[in-house]
Design a protein that fits this description.
The complex is a heterodimer of chains A (432) and B (322). Chain A has 19 helices and eleven strands. By secondary structure, chain A is an alpha/beta fold. The longest helix of chain A has 22 residues. Chain A is globular and about 70 Å long. The N and C termini of chain A lie far apart (61 Å). Chain B is mainly α and 322 residues long. Chain B folds into two domains: 63 residues, no CATH class; 232 residues, MetI-like (MetI-like fold), CATH 1.10.3720.10. Chain B has 14 helices and two strands, in the order H-H-H-E-E-H-H-H-H-H-H-H-H-H-H-H. Chain B has a two-stranded antiparallel sheet with strand order 1-2. In chain B, helix 5 packs across helix 11, helix 7 crosses helix 9 and helix 9 packs across helix 11. Chain B is globular. Classes of the chains: A alpha/beta (432), B mainly alpha (322).
Chain lengths: 432, 322
């Protein structure tokens, strides 16, 4: 056995030695579990598909850790070729020109084809600069959707809510049927950022932060946002909404156990839920407010994008470009989509998945992309805000205080407004 | 970390040696006998000095420098902002709240783990039958790594299925660790104390066992009250151990509890209590606000240094090393 291992090691190193021309590129990401495995599978497919480049993916823990370690590595000149950066960290990396090569430039320089129109509408803005040039390559994109416990809805004899008003009408019946009507994970993403998108509400000045960092301020203590949380608090007090803290899993767990009728979660959770849910479930769009004029627009993309870091040789950049093209090919996108639950990011991939009959078999998988393809509004495109991970922490803190009765939604959002603006002002100074 | 109490009392000695080195080392003839070249002792301490320089002085200088700047995380641009990072931190209500909790946390963890450790040591010292079994059982917890004890704590206090949560429910209390500030504070302190008791226990036990039997017997003749004998004889003889443990425990509660907190708040502190070290980590490593988090770490460094110096000044005088 040992001998065999030795022989194969030698054989392997000989092969590796003979393939001297091969260019190594690295990819740091923040995914674990099944999603991390799929990343390895895709990298392997890329390596098998061609000889010139060898891609090595490496998990750096969470999204935040992937970003921090890439920053530290960049400062010491040891950066990877590709780094995965999550939605909230986008401003950090995009406001540091010189840290990354815009994906679009990279691909065109390498002589590969690229067209913005290939991508579905919902993913085009978030990781692009003000002219629409792709800086990051959208990769794992998700939408917040409403998962429903089929048994609970049957038992209560109610239909899926389209709006929050519908929810108010059916929630008491779900409660009578013995269920907690609703839980939701990550209120920052669901009930603030996507509340803004889904209801077409402005989130920050300077065009939601897209137009620049100077003087950007949040718009969060407005009537509508506060109303959303007044309602959530009232629902929690009436037992219509279960709040289990800022942790993602704590809010998901009771849904998986079949105690909750509906869970507002990520379309990217579909892969995992198929294994963990102990009851049949279905999904639909995240509700919006019928009372808000112009509401019902698309949600913006969550998840993360891939960025090509600067300071690498042309050969390596060519390999990175080749990988980005490979990644957006319909076959790879469909493979990723079907294995993780993240949405396909190109029209062609979506068509391919449809043709294969995937959505007839698993209609839930189509909810996220359909929601991203809803008509857009002026403010449905998301945001670009500096130090946003900290602003999210401030929100999480204040939300916990709301539900433990330490503060009111209005006071909480006043605090978020104040501390958030201070952080944005600090961020504007860092790039000065 | 453990060498904090060791190096500090030596620092006057180090100064004396430095003086001796410059003044031709004639002041201390004993040393000349041991090393005929003045360089030799330095060679021996060089590895330790290098470690201290690389892992303490150099990063400290960097922290102080970057605390005066607001820096783009990638290091492209930085603006000199003077004391802004310090005033921002100190004037923030949230920062003061965290500082307040840190002080409370340090007092509770140090006080409880020292007193429980001492109580258990005194009791274990008296046990004759099966003594080693008891001791092993008490010490074993020390082998658990902080993140693991955090994980155990997290499971015990889980909102959906934690046994402690269920126990609280028997008494009609709805415990919500992770949502309710006080509940989480209680859970954090409990786990941090539990983790530290064995350490204190080991030291107190060995301290107790070094109290001479003859002294104890003599005391037995003078006083019938066990409490009085303990207070007048054993406790003063334990003072050096207790002083050492006090410093270690304060450092533990301020710094080493990081992993416990990180695991128990599940990476999302929200409104949960946290210590200053955790805040430094959050702002620096998760928020990428290098200037702000450097300023906070400098503040923390100054406070801890002042605390340690104060302890040596005012408390150590009362410790009798025998």
């Amino acid at each position: 056995m040992l001998k065999l291992a030795t022989v194969s090691t030698i054989a392997f190193s000989t092969i590796a030695g003979s393939a001297m021309a091969q260019t190594d590129i690295s990819w740091w990401h923040g995914m674990g579990g099944r999603n991390g495995e799929v990343i390895n599978e895709i990298s392997q497919q890329f390596n098998d598909a061609q000889d010139a480049c060898k891609l090595t993916p490496l998990s750096r823990g969470t999204y935040e850790e992937a970003l921090s370690s890439s920053i530290a590595a960049f400062r010491s000149g040891e950066q990877p070729n590709i780094v995965q950066v999550f939605d909230a960290g986008a401003a950090t990396i995009m406001n540091a020109p010189g840290a990354v090569i815009p994906a679009e430039d990279l691909i065109l320089n390498a002589g590969e084809e690229f067209s913005r129109d290939d991508f579905i509408a919902g993913v085009r803005n978030f990781y692009a600069d003000s002219e629409g040039k792709f800086v990051g390559m959208p990769f794992n994109s998700s939408a917040p959707i409403m998962y429903m416990n089929t048994e609970a809805f049957e038992k209560a004899g109610v239909e899926a809510p389209k709006t929050w008003e519908d929810f108010e009408a059916i929630a008491p019946k779900l409660k009578e049927a013995g269920y907690i009507p609703m839980t939701a994970s990550q209120l920052t993403w669901m009930m603030v950022e996507n509340f803004k998108s889904r209801n077409n509400q402005q989130f920050a000045t300077n065009n939601n932060g897209y137009d620049g960092v100077d003087g950007t301020q949040l718009i969060v203590n407005d009537e509508n946002t506060v109303m959303m949380f007044d309602k959530l608090k009232a629902w929690a007090d009436e037992g219509l909404y279960g709040f289990y803290g800022a942790g993602w899993g704590d809010n998901l767990k009771p849904f998986e156990e079949g105690k909750v009728a509906m869970w507002i979660g990520s379309s990217g959770s579909f892969g995992g839920l198929q294994k963990s849910a102990q009851m049949p479930f279905t999904a639909d769009f995240m509700p919006y407010w019928g009372s808000i004029e112009g509401a019902g627009t698309q949600s913006f993309i969550g998840g993360a994008a891939l960025f090509a870091m600067a300071g690498k040789s042309d050969e390596e950049n060519a390999c990175t470009a080749q990988f980005f093209s490979f990644l957006t090919s319909p076959e790879v996108q469909v493979y990723w989509h079907e294995n993780t639950g993240y949405v396909p990011i190109t029209e062609a991939a979506y068509e391919l998945a449809k043709e294969e009959g995937y959505y007839e078999e698993k209609p839930v998988a189509e909810v996220g992309i359909k929601q991203l393809m809803l008509p857009g509004g002026e403010w449905s495109k998301g945001y670009r805000l500096g130090f946003y991970p900290q602003i999210r922490s401030v929100m999480e803190r204040e939300f916990n205080r709301i539900f433990s009765g330490e503060t009111t939604p209005k006071a909480a959002f006043d605090t978020i407004q104040q501390e958030g603006d201070a952080l944005l002002a600090r961020f504007a100074k860092t790039s000065g | 970390m453990t060498d904090t109490p060791m190096t500090l009392p030596q620092s006057p000695g180090l100064m004396a040696r430095l003086r001796g080195f410059w003044e031709g080392s004639s002041r201390n003839p004993a040393k000349r006998v041991q090393f005929d070249r003045p360089l030799t002792p330095w060679l021996f301490v060089l590895p330790q000095l290098l470690i201290v320089a690389i892992f303490f002085y150099w990063p400290s200088v960097q922290a102080v420098t970057s605390s005066f700047y607001l820096e783009d995380p990638f290091g492209f641009g930085s603006t000199f902002v003077g004391m802004d990072n310090y005033t921002d931190a100190i004037s923030s209500r949230e920062y003061r709240r965290i500082a307040g909790f840190t002080a409370f946390f340090a007092v509770m963890v140090t006080g409880l783990s020292l007193s429980i450790g001492l109580l258990l040591a005194v009791k274990a010292d008296k046990v004759i039958r099966g003594a080693s079994a008891y001791k092993t059982a008490l010490i074993a917890v020390y082998a658990i790594a902080p993140p693991v004890s955090g994980l155990i704590g997290m499971m015990f206090f889980d909102m959906h299925m934690g046994p402690f949560t269920e126990m609280a429910a028997w008494f009609g209390y709805e415990m919500k660790v992770g949502i309710n500030y006080n509940d989480t504070a209680f859970a954090l302190i409990l786990v941090a104390v539990w983790k530290q008791i064995p350490y204190n226990f080991i030291f107190f036990l060995s301290g107790l066992q070094s109290v001479p039997v003859s002294v104890r017997e003599a005391a037995l003749i003078d006083a019938r009250s066990g409490w009085r004998r303990f207070k007048d004889i054993v406790l003063p003889l334990l003072a050096p151990t207790a002083f050492f443990l006090l410093i270690i425990n304060i450092t533990y509660s301020l710094f080493d509890t990081f992993a416990i907190i990180d695991v128990m708040v599940k990476d999302k502190p929200a409104n949960n209590p946290m210590t200053l070290v955790y805040k430094v980590y959050l702002d620096g490593f998760k928020g990428n606000d290098i200037g702000g988090s450097s300023a906070q770490s400098v503040i923390l460094m100054v406070v801890v240094a002042a605390l340690t110096v104060a302890q040596f000044r005012f408390l150590e005088r009362r410790v009798h090393y025998g």
